[in-house]
Write a structure and sequence with these properties.
The chain is α/β, with parallel strands linked by helices and 220 residues long. The chain has seven helices and six strands, in the order ααβββαβαβαβαα.
Length: 220
């Protein structure tokens, strides 16, 4: 099942301001957000690239794919880049073993600031690029969300609502999205000590394996 941005999203129409005024403010806001996203892409996002061997992976649509790249993977792991590079790839490789196919990783760091941020705009754009790529390949793909990855998706979909954007070629599975803040902090500290990604805790989860099997059986 794909999550899509709902249509009919409107804001500021009950303020008493004229339609032209409201549209002018909305357009100004869009220009500011676009400028912010360009700044973010050229500075912050660039700093998030793999600190290891740059030839070991290729970045496409804001997604890192392990070389050699033959086809764009149909499964992507999204955890908000909360953990280290090695831990991130560790989770990706584990997910690839579970699903039985290549897995890529979303390489944009989650911005927890309230309201619309440049990071949210960038993530929404990347989701549309991914959706387009899978659509052109006449296939449906899966994004596995881990912990804050779910929050990152929600914020990006809010951006999509502004423009009535839809991403029908993407399905989502959320893992550990209901974990408490206290538990998330504890797992983060543990990951820093052990060097292991918390996703490993779900490697033997029957529920996760069943969800992955259901997706594969319905999207061959």
């Amino acid at each position: 099942m794909a999550l899509v941005a709902d249509s009919g999203f409107r804001r500021n129409l009950g303020t008493g301001k004229s339609i032209s005024f409201v549209r002018g403010v909305a357009m100004l806001r869009q220009l500011i957000v676009i400028a912010m996203s360009l700044f973010y892409f050229s500075t912050v996002a660039g700093a998030e690239s793999d600190s290891g061997d740059s030839t070991s992976n290729t970045s496409v649509f804001g997604v890192d794919v392990k070389n050699p790249v033959t086809n764009f993977p149909r499964v992507i792991f999204l955890d908000g880049m909360t953990f280290g590079e090695k831990q991130s790839w560790q989770a990706v490789e584990l997910l690839a073993d579970l699903v039985g196919m290549p897995v890529a990783r979303f390489n944009i760091k989650f911005n927890p600031m309230p309201g619309m941020t440049a990071s949210d705009v960038l993530v929404e754009k990347v989701l549309r690029d991914i959706n387009k790529s899978w659509g052109e390949a006449n296939t449906r793909g899966l994004i596995v969300l881990f912990m804050v990855g779910n929050n990152q998706l929600i914020k990006a979909l809010e951006v999509g609502k502004l423009y009535d954007h839809k991403i029908p070629n993407i399905s989502f599975i959320a893992v550990a999205n209901l974990v408490s803040i206290e538990q998330r902090i504890a797992w983060y500290k543990e990951s820093q000590q052990t060097g292991n990604h918390p996703f490993l805790k779900y490697a033997n989860s029957i529920e996760l394996k069943n969800m992955l099997m259901d997706w594969k059986s319905n999207n061959k």
